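Z., the sequence and structure:
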Amino acid sequence: MDSNCAPCHREGGDAQSSGLWLQWSVEDPLRLGICKPPVAAGNGAGAEL
C-alpha cells in the first residue's frame, strides 16, 4: 500500500481529497479509513447527481 497507493493517497497527493491517507507514517485512525465517512463519493459509490 505504501508504495502503490500512498503516492496519491497522502497529503498533497492526487487523491488527497478522498481523506484516505495510506502512508506508513500516518497514525490517525480516521485518515487510515477507520470509521471514516465517505467524502469524495461520486457515481461509482451510488451517489445521485
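DSSP finds no helices and no strands in the chain. The mean pLDDT is 82.

Let me know what you think.
H.
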